[in-house]
Each structure stands twice: as C-alpha cells, then as structure tokens.
Specification:
The complex is a heterodimer.
Chain A (H helix, E strand, L loop, with lengths): L3 E3 L2 E3 L4 E16 L4 E17 L3 E5 L6 H8 L7 E6 L2 E2 L5 H8 L2 E4 L13 H12 L4 H14 L16 H13 L5 E5 L7 H18 L2 E6 L2 H7 L2 E6 L2 E7 H6 L4 H9 L39 H5 L5 E2 L5 E2 L8
Chain B lengths: L6 E11 L5 E12 L4 E5 L6 H8 L7 E10 L2 E2 L5 H5 L6 E4 L3 H4 L6 H13 L3 H14 L5 H5 L8 H13 L5 E5 L7 H18 L2 E6 L2 H7 L2 E6 L2 E7 H6 L4 H8 L49 E2 L7 E2 L6
Parallel strand pairs in B: 3-8, 3-9, 6-7, 7-8
Antiparallel strand pairs in B: 1-2, 1-4, 4-5, 9-10, 10-12, 11-12
Helix pairs in contact in B: 4-5, 5-7, 7-8
The chains are: A alpha/beta, B alpha/beta.
C-alpha cells in the first residue's frame, strides 16, 4: 500500500485512478550488418507517478523529454520495457489485449494533431459511432442519438455529423477528437498537446470546453503539453519531465510559485511574459537537450545546470518529498 | 528614435485569384513603417495575412497571388516597381529573412559553410577565401563553438536550435538593414527559444538592424518588440507602442486576444475566449471584419468597414474601430 501525502490529506490506493511505478520504455537502436541492437534510446527512464481521481495532472517538458511516450505507455498503446501500471486496482502492465479491451472504455486519449488523428475517409458520425459499434451493443438509433448529443456537448451542430474532417477548421476538428474520446464515458483521458496546434483564441475555447466537460462527466485528465502557461491554467498538479525522468512534481501553486529544481526554474523564467511592468530575470540555459540514447551519468540535467556540483555526475538524484506533496529530484534539496 | 523611415508600406493590397473567380483579399490595405534599428511586431492568428504581408515586402508572391496596389518604399526605392533581377539584389543583401522551419529554408544537400559562402560571393563580391573566413566568423558570432567543423556539416547534422543559428548567420551575412523574422521561434522549445530570441536581439543591436517580427506569440512581442501591429482579416486593426498595447488595449479583438491567453502571472477560472473563428479571406463580412465575433458590435459595424483612427495626440495609437471614431 503506497501512501503519498499532499497538503493535509493522506491518500490511499482507492483515491488513485492510475498508479505507475518505475516505468521504463527503451527503444532499441539497430545497427551493423546483422542489425544487432547496439544501444537504447531511453525515452522514459524510471518514472513513477500516481493520478488522483478527478484531478488534472499536467506533464510539461521540452521535445524529447519522453512525455508523449509516457502517455502512450500508461494507456498500453505501447508496452513498457519495465515497471508496473495499475489502473483502477487492476494491474494492466502485462494484461492481454482481449482482457484489456473492456478496460479501454475507461481510458481514452486526445492527440495533438487534429489533421492526422481523424480518418479523412470517415464522416463525423462514422468517427464518433465507431467506438460504440466496437464496445457496446446500442442500436443504430441509439447510436445516432448519442452522436448528436455529443456533438452538441462539444459545441458543434447535429447537421455536422454528415461532414468529413477536411470540412472543419483546426479547432472544430479538435472538438470532434474530444467528442470521439468521450463516446464511451471514459473515466480517464490523456490529452497529448491537445491545443498546441490551435490559435490562441481557439485554444481558449477548447480549454474552456475541456474544463466544462471535466465537471460534467467527472473526468480525470493527464494533460501533456510543452506550454507552461496552458498547463498552469488547467492543472491541479504538475510534473516536469527532463530526458525521460521526472525532475519535479508538485501541486500547481507550489510548482509555479516556488519551483525548486534548477531546470524548472530555468523553464519558467524562459517563458515570454506579457506582463511588461514586471520584467523577470531570465535564466538562459546553455546547450541543447542531450541525446536520450547516451544520457549524462548521475543527474541528466547536470550538463546544462547552472548549480552543478561534483556529486551530480556521480549519483543520480532520487525524486524525494520535501513537504506539501512537493517532490524534487535534485541533490540541492535531498541533503547529505 | 529617429523619424527617418527605413521601410514604409502604404495601401498594400495582395489578392489571390481563386479558380472559382472568388478573390481572397489576404492583405487588404495595409499601412505601416519601420524606423532604422527598431523592432516592430506584426501579430495575428493564422489567416490574418501577416505572412503574406512579409512575403509581399520580399516580393515572393506567386500566382495566383498578386500585389494589386500599394507602395513598398525601402531606403528610398519602391520595391513594387522593381523587376525580378533588381529584386534579387535586395533580397538577402538589404533585407534578410528567417523562417519558422529551418529544415525547409536550408538546402539539405549543401553544407552550412557552402550556403553562407554562396550568399557572400553573390552579394558582397568576395573571393572564395574571403567568404570562407567571413563565414567562420559569422558562425562564431551566432554561437557555434566549433565553427570550422560546422562549416563542413549538413543541416540534418545540427539540432533544431543550431539550425536556427545557422539560418540567422545566413540572414545577417550581408549586413541587411532590415531583418524579417517570420515566426522565428514557433517550432522551438522555450529554453531554446530564449537563446535564439536573445541572439536576434544581440545581432540587432550589434549591426543596428531593424526587425520585422512576425509572430502569434504575444509574450515574445512584449519582451522583444518596440512597437506592435495587430492584424485581423488582412488589415491592421491596432498599431501602437508595446506599453500602450499591453496596458491600454483598445480594439475589441486585441482585448479578446489578451484575455484568451493563459498566463503565468495571473490565475483565472475561465479564459475569455473569442467566439467563432477567423473568417477565410474570400468570405469576409461586409462591414468590419471582426463584427461577427465582436462582443461590442453595433449596427453600423455590419454595414461598413471602419477606417483606422488615430486615438492618441502624442504618440501613435491607431485603432480600426467605430468605438474610437
């Protein structure tokens, strides 16, 4: 039984919709004449996290940090190399696909690119009805009613169901993707960069819609994005990923007001701000993200860290609680 | 800042003639100017005409698009009247341009060195050796520690941020007076974005360049630009200094845009979304182009498109809205 303290409450297993322990996802690199495995890209490297029922957990990170891979592994769209995933008290890590299928009703995903994630040959009603045909035995009429009610919920008109994806704008397509994800009344939805392809005014519409739907359907979101302001707006807790690992995870307020990890601090300082009266000091990180096939020893951030010291290259910092549900993986805070 | 104008665009109209006889008025009567050494931002959502405005300045508009009307006066000459050959002496030499996606802007089959050298030989009439030395120098300026080796590398061998640096090196190689940056950092992560924007700012000061910064990111504008123009439906709807735009925005569209941005500084329950979507360029409303989405719409807004009004006696603050008539 795992117990994590957040604020003043103590959470038990029942409070979690999803618990992931020591998740690893390595992709082999093949090379040589015989295509032997010559190395691994460590996309996700030992990540543990738990998602509370009804919360929105944001995951931020730059490209290559492994946040999307993590999302896919948690839904078993990819099999983890190692680790354990428990969804609603069921260990789904090695569950066979046939057994997994009924559970899939409860977990859905909305992808980034609404141009690539909808089949261009299917009309909107076909797209939305497909999960109902596969997963339920509703009649044709019931399916039609369900489709219409979903379209109206996401702000489209019922006549739109005869149209094809290319007839819609980006924001409308993302609404269709959301409607499709909600067809089976899921409990848990992973949103992988759902608004990053949209213009700001449309982005605001979709974010508001997602918040409304969360209240109405009592959804739990895992919200993956690179935009720190968007994640701040929608999340209750936020995890920061760097090179396949979680650098820091905390309730939103703590993370944005008192970021502890030097990476989180740099990331927050680099976000351009529209607040022209209070210019903030920028921490400019040198260099690029190292290659995940050959990550630095010890702390993976040490090559770009302004606070680096000797220990960082030798010992990998563990994610450690520093109070109020605020966990950080940095030697500056773990003492000793 | 001096009152000399480096670039002055007046009454610019760039239309696209579609197959079904419809006309997409992508840029429809745009006026603005840029003074030497200042950074002017052109902001708008997709379809607002900001990129077409920049491509019109470079005269990179191809059929079915055409510059229908207007003057683009740059350093005393009218670019609209120049032929292709004369224009090649402006592009890359007097006006540099950097794009959103360096992988499509750089030639994948030539080394970075080759691409800089080519520009220098063409525009600066340098010998190959002079050009090579200058190219190495430029790469060092934009932050390549191993410039000699980078000269021999191909674009795919560089990381995203490094490709951006290479593209900036090419754009500034001939000391342009104006740099057009079209969504220069949209494809980059924030930590790399900060590096690149700081580099651009440093280059601008070092070479006293003016910058036309085209972006949809108001945060970037607030930090790096001196003046801002907000575009909507092929027209400028508000134009003023950074301070005025962010402290006292006037056009309902600008206000909506600012409200719809989630921010790190303030906490709101709901974002102030603008209803509807940007209308396509061949189906603008008859009156004000924002009228269908405007929360303050009046009946005359639907009849006739307002002209742009000066609302500030001291410093320019132009707004295209009947509320300020």
């Amino acid at each position: 039984m795992s117990v994590i303290e957040t604020e003043t409450r103590i959470h038990t297993d029942q409070d979690y919709i999803l618990q992931a322990k020591n998740i690893k996802k390595y992709f082999p690199i093949k090379g040589g004449i015989l295509k032997h495995t010559i190395g691994h890209v460590k996309a996700v490297d030992d990540v543990s996290l738990s998602v509370l029922r009804g919360e929105t957990l944001g995951i931020v990170g730059e490209s290559g940090s492994g946040k999307s891979t993590l999302g896919r592994v948690l839904l078993r769209l990819m099999d983890p190399t190692d680790g354990q995933i428990v969804f609603e008290d069921q260990d789904i890590t090695k569950m066979r696909y046939r057994k997994l299928r009924p559970i899939r009703r409860d977990m859905q995903i909305v992808f980034q690119d609404p141009f690539a994630s909808l089949n261009p040959k299917m009309s909107v009603s076909e797209l939305i009805e497909e999960p109902l045909i596969v997963q339920t035995n509703l009649t044709k009429l019931e399916r039609k009613e369900k489709t219409i009610s979903l379209l109206e919920k996401v702000g489209l008109r019922s006549e739109d169901r005869y149209k094809y994806p290319h007839e819609f704008s980006g924001g409308q397509r993302q609404r269709i993707s959301i409607a499709r994800a909600l067809t089976l009344n899921p409990k848990f939805v992973i949103c992988d960069e759902p608004v990053s392809a949209l213009d700001v005014s449309i982005q605001a519409q979709v974010l508001n819609l997602m918040a409304d739907l969360q209240d109405e359907f009592n959804l739990t979101y895992l919200f993956i994005a690179h935009d720190l302001s968007v994640v701040k707006h929608i999340s209750d807790r936020v995890a920061v990923m760097y090179l396949g690992r979680i650098a820091e995870i905390a309730p939103k307020k703590n993370l944005y007001e008192t970021p502890l990890h030097p990476y989180t601090q740099a990331l927050l300082s680099a976000v351009p701000s529209t607040d022209i009266l209070h210019k903030k000091e920028k921490i400019i990180l040198k260099g690029d993200l190292p290659s995940p096939s050959n990550p630095p020893s010890g702390c993976t951030f040490r090559t770009r860290c302004p606070m680096v010291h000797e220990k960082c290259s030798e010992v990998r910092p563990e994610l450690t609680e520093v109070g109020n549900g605020h966990l950080v993986a940095c030697h500056l805070y773990t003492g000793k | 800042m001096s009152e000399v104008k480096l670039l002055e665009v007046s009454g610019l109209k760039t239309y696209f003639h579609l197959e079904n006889k419809a006309v997409a008025k992508a840029v429809d009567g745009v006026d603005f100017y840029i003074r030497p050494g200042e950074t002017v931002a052109l902001v708008g959502e997709s379809g607002s005409g900001k990129s077409i405005t920049s491509l019109s300045i470079m005269k990179l508009i191809n059929k079915p698009g055409k510059i229908e009307d207007g003057r683009i006066s740059f350093g005393g000459k009218d670019l609209v009247g120049l032929n292709d050959k004369q224009m090649t002496n402006v592009r890359g030499k007097e006006i540099g341009m950097i794009f959103q996606e360096p992988m499509t802007a750089l030639n994948p089959v030539f080394t970075i060195g080759n691409q800089i050298i080519e520009t220098l030989i063409r525009h600066k009439k340098m010998t190959k050796n002079e050009a090579r030395l200058r190219a190495i120098e430029l790469l060092k300026v934009v932050g390549f520690p191993r410039a000699e080796e980078t000269m021999k590398e191909y674009p795919h061998q560089l990381s995203g941020g490094m490709r951006h640096r290479a593209m900036i090196a090419i754009a500034i190689s001939c000391d342009p007076k104006l740099l057009i940056a079209d969504e220069p950092t949209t494809a980059l992560d924030v930590t790399i974005q900060a590096q690149i924007l700081d580099l651009m700012d440093e280059m601008k000061k070092k070479f006293n360049m003016a910058v036309l910064l085209i972006t949809h990111d108001l945060g970037v504008v607030a930090e790096y630009a001196d003046r801002i123009m907000v575009m909507y439906g092929g027209q400028i709807v508000e134009e003023t200094t950074i301070e005025k735009l962010f402290l006292t925005p006037k056009h309902p569209y600008t206000m909506g845009l600012l409200d719809s941005l989630p921010s790190l500084e303030k906490e709101v329950d709901r974002l102030g979304a603008i209803k509807g979507t940007v209308p396509p360029a061949h189906r603008f409303p008859i009156g004000c182009r924002f009228s269908d989405r405007c929360p303050k719409v009046m009946s005359k807004c639907r009849d006739m498109n307002p002209s742009i009004y000066e609302t500030d006696a001291e410093e320019s603050h132009r707004v295209r809205c009947y509320l300020y008539e």
